[in-house]
Amino acid sequence: MTFVKPTFRHPALTKNAVGFTKADYEGALSTLCAGCGHDSISASIVQACYELDIEPHRVAKFSGIGCSSKTPTYFLGNSHGFNTVHGRMPSVTTGANLANKDLIYLGVSGDGDSASIGLGQFCHVIRRNLNMTYIVMNNGCYGLTKGQDSATADRGSINKSGVENRFQSIDLAALALELGASFVARSFSGDKGQLIPLIKAALLHPGFAFIDVISPCVTFNNNDGSTKSYDFVRDHIDATSPLDFVPEEDEITLEYDPEKPAEVKLHDGSILNFYKLNPLWDPTDRNLSVERMNKARQEGHILTGLLYLEPSTSDLHKTLQTTAKPLNTLKEDDLCPGSQALDKINQGLR
Amino acid sequence: MSKPVRVNDMVIRFANVNGTGSASANDLFSKAVFRMGIPLSSKNFFPSNIQGLPTWYEVRVSEKGYTGRRNGVDLLVAVNPQTYAKDIATVVPGGYFLYDSTKNLHPELIRKDINYIGIPMMKLCMENYDIPRQQQLFKNIVYIGALATLLDVEMEVIRDIIRQMFAKKEKLIPPNFKALDLGANYVKENFSWPLEIRLERRDALGDQIFMDGNSAASLGALYGGVTFAAWYPITPSTSVISAFEKYCKKYRTNPDGTTNYAIVQAEDELAAIGMVIGASWNGARAFTSTSGAGISLMTEFLGLAYFAEVPAVIVNVQRGGPSTGMPTRTQQSDIISCAYASHGDTKQVLLFPSTPAECFEMTAQALDLAERLQTPVLVMTDLDLGMNLHLSPALKWDDNRKYDRGKVLNRQQLEEAKQFGRYLDVDGDGICYRTLPGTHPTKGSFFTRGTSRDEFARYTEEGEAYVRNMQRLQKKWKTAADLVPAPEVTRTGTSKLGVIYFGTTKFSADEALDMLAEEGMKFDVLRIKAFPFGGDVHKFIKDHEQVVVIEQNRDAQMRTVLMTELEIDPAKLISVVNYDGMPIAADTIYDQIKKRLSPIAVKA
Questions:
Q1: Going edge to edge, which strands form the sheet with B228-231?
Q2: Is B203 in the A-facing interface, judged by CB distances under 8 Å?
Q3: Among A213, A214, B141, B359, which is disulfide-ready with B213 (CB 3.0 to 4.6 Å)?
């Protein structure tokens, strides 16, 4: 059996502003299980990049190991990708980003990859505020090794074998907030209406943008009693606000009229509109976000949407004060001090 | 009866307390010997401690230019009562024990066969300085003044170095001079001087420099075009990166304050090598520096870089293993763990510098090799080379030198290419063409992975495709053997006996071989400079009946790698090792070679 995607494209397919059809953002045929939440996330990434008019080769995509980390093969086929080692996607992305500040960096990972083996790197990439989008496809289990609980599995959740998870779960979004992430969101693979604008906003965010996407594992964690099944998530979802992403070139001011959507201006002039369910909701208030997340958790709800945003933020390049030119474009003349300087250095060593 | 005068041939050892400022005073002494143009080496034996534990500093002065270690101390400067007993035992009969006589020596410490020189260092400092910290710091300069007088070091040379050291803090110069005089005058008033062991200006060092290998490696990275360094602190490699940062601040900062480099202190060694691989994958020259335990942590990533074919440069300043081992002592004991770093069939390119000049050159060269070969390259230095000051040829750079960026297709080349397959062996040398992200909107993208893949970077579990790839990597390995530095063969064709050594073993080994030659035992010599071994190494072993392999680890790791890679009969390779954490000494090599080689073999 072969998996081949047709490469034929109808000539009348709509193209975006940079001349690409949506198909130009797709990748190889997925080998994940039919109905896997991850495939919906891949489709949302494709849609977001298409709608943002990003040239595919301007994106570099990264992943670790696991089902989620296989997905970069299934989206953005015209982008370079790097499937690294288990739990170490953040470090590879950090190096790549520092080498060339001009590309868009997209990392995808799973709950095993980020909350267990890679928890350290997850924390440290947040501390550095690396300019990247970090998506965790969170299904609460290890799919490739047949469904063991992961560290994001909720206590009391029952797995496919009928065993109850006895350990506390790690909430990666809450952790990201705690560690000072400048963009934190949570979404559901089945809610593309919310997920696509979140991915778009994350890609444009000039610092570290984290999206925890609940993405049910249809094979190993979609049973009764699981808190990461499609049914459970749909029944317990509590969106912070419907989202609408509006690319905008005119100057926009931030408004906080409770009757109107809150608008958060992104660095390129686009705005993200929040139709607030709660008039007190302000996604730029970190303390409020933490409080709200804790409350939802106590009530057994899954709070989704944009949880926190620091609109103007300083990424790692700014912190390190690197030159405006990508480091990988610097040549001998920029880099090598030359023989005369070396003679002076030698002289100092005598 | 006066003893015969011995000029420019001695071992001076300083026994100090860690954290008392003795290291810079001892460097001052070494530098003065260097500036008198006399061959020397200096070695710091320090503890894994910030303050309070014993630390030693050894200076070997050798008219003949032997800069390796030799056993036995001619003059011991004892400033640490904790170790008096142990220190006294290291002094050779007829040698000297210079100590702080502010307090009397315990009678048990008196040896009849050595000479005692008591200088009341603390007393002199208490009388002449008011601030407690100064009283302690200037004690070091007092003993330098005393020692310099005893050995007839040119005092003006020392004063010049002090003037340079404190050029920016001039008010510190007079109190330092005063301390120097306190020590000198005390000797002049109380002892006959100079001693029969003494120093005389030779001006024999030409344009050589006196520097540590870690700084040299960092300059190699700077000159070699590194724009990104990631690291995690670990003794003895930390100073590679701190020196790199210092030089980058000076030479890579733009007038507007922005930098042409980035340095990240990573959360651990795994992240450090991950970052280096990410940056190299994206077309920047990147390196990290670490030591044994760090190599263990980097091993998974080194396998990825080998298999996915991503450049990376690692400076491994080896220390005593296994585990945390002896973190402040030297060894060459990461040969096997680096040569085959990572699971599966993996081989890594290693370079073995012997001098600071080679640390410089080989680090720069490693950056070329890593990009040419698209694979990790490890520069295998050690604590002795990295952290001690060594005589070295001056660092040299040809301004016409261009970086070899390897096979990277640009946008135009992708336009013109009939097809692009990341792992297609177009040229037949096992090295394929790569592309960098962002090069072309529709051509040349590929997915880098640590899983098996076909020539077009597509995931596959087909056995045939996997084997093709592994065989191509083996072909690339053969290409690597032609590109890495060739071994250095000296004293060739004179004997049926050969000696192989590498790295810092060179200096003591050369001295030991001279000692043996004087007794009629001659050896041809080969110094390994890289792994994979070129054909010259195989030929050298084939051409000799017996070959002694000298190295600084217990298990004769290099010997094992030679046997395995070149299919050498184990009986042919005789092992000489030293692994007590001290740099191997000439006498150790001399003794072991004599013991291990049967008289019959030696005669033949």
A1: B262-265, B228-231, B286-290, B312-318, B376-382, B349-351, B530-531
A2: no
A3: B359
